[in-house]
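Sample intake sheet
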Amino acid sequence: MALSTVKKSQASAMNAFSKASDLKKRIVFTILALVVFRFGSFIPLPGINMDVISSFFNSGPNNGFIDMFNTFAGGALERMSILALNIMPYISASIVIQMAGAIFKPLGALRKEGEAGMRKMNQYTRYLTIFITIIQGYGLSVALQNMADGTAVILSSSLLFKVTTIVSLLGGTLFVIWLGEQITNRGIGNGTSLIIAIGILAELPKFFFETLTNQALASSAVLIILAMTFLLIYLVVFVERAQRRIVIQYSKGMTMGGRAMAMNNSYFPLKINMSGVMPPIFASALLMLPLTILQFLANSEVGQSGWASNLRIWLERGGALYMTLYAVLIFFFTFFQTSLVFNPTEMAENLKKNGGFIAGRRPGKSTAEYLDYVVTRLTFLGAIYLVFLCIVPELLTAELGIRFILGGTSLLIVVTVIMETISQVQSHLVAYQYESLIRKAQLKGKL
């Protein structure tokens, strides 16, 4: 009986999908946009000697932050593509704007102005993205010129090389931002998250092949890596779907036959990790690019004894200082992002306006304090979960001396984006089914 019910529901979903032309157009558009992004990641910057770049990336099993940044960029940094910076300048600008909005009240007030306010904040974010991209593009061009005594530069004019590098990287970053917005508006899923996720997934086959064919690794180490990967995936799925349900009661019950019906109850779900993938991404963005440029500069110093090399050793990926900073930033951004997506005071006011209340709590201030108490405890658990998820793969990478990308931030992004995309597809199917039922009901009413 249960099996037949499942088959009927699956058949109904497939039937709805076959008729949902808008959903199919969105899926096709998303796939084509991601294909365009992948093609763009193979267009190299002008004036680059790729033999020098390839030798640098193949010089060791672990290039620290460069490996992480290259993974987020889908290998574009390794190929010195025009999309080498990917979406990271935009993420860095978003961090600055969000934190500035929490400090400066006029900027934070834009969030309460609805769509017009969000449009202004997005505009400020784009302006700051341009500035950050120019600074990072200039730093990358200088680092490339310093590598291997300047043999990485083909163009004779250093000024021309810097200008072309900055313009190319700026155009590539703005194109990725525009492409992500198009995916969000006309496709399926969040465009920015999908672009990062597809870059990580594109690098997985190469890293799995390197791990499996690494002669320095014992078979037991490979099994540990695979087991750790599946355990982390299970942990992500379990925690991301976990909820704390708060019972909401409504005093405005309906009447039937002159008698009051039983009080209506509903559940308000609170996720353990309400901040999503943003805290690890924000923490990585703040630590990643400056140390990536630092590593380029350190690679160019004679004898590897300059200030950049010394500072890189202190902040090297897998080191104690790096782990500490990474964990602290994840904790901070988990609470910061949660405060942006959930406001206990506004939630309590909305419940009060709609006649809802939590059992044992007075509407208004008491309800807000209770929600703040629950959310704070859940956020603390979510922060511990994110720190564990991101630090364990880093420790494994440092211990084994390999590239372990399917863990931490990358794994969280991939699994969460897949879950959200599937959820959006299901939402479109449910909406289409309801729309079909409403149309049938309207036709029957007219007849």
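Comment: The radius of gyration is 25 Å. DSSP finds 16 helices and five strands in the chain.
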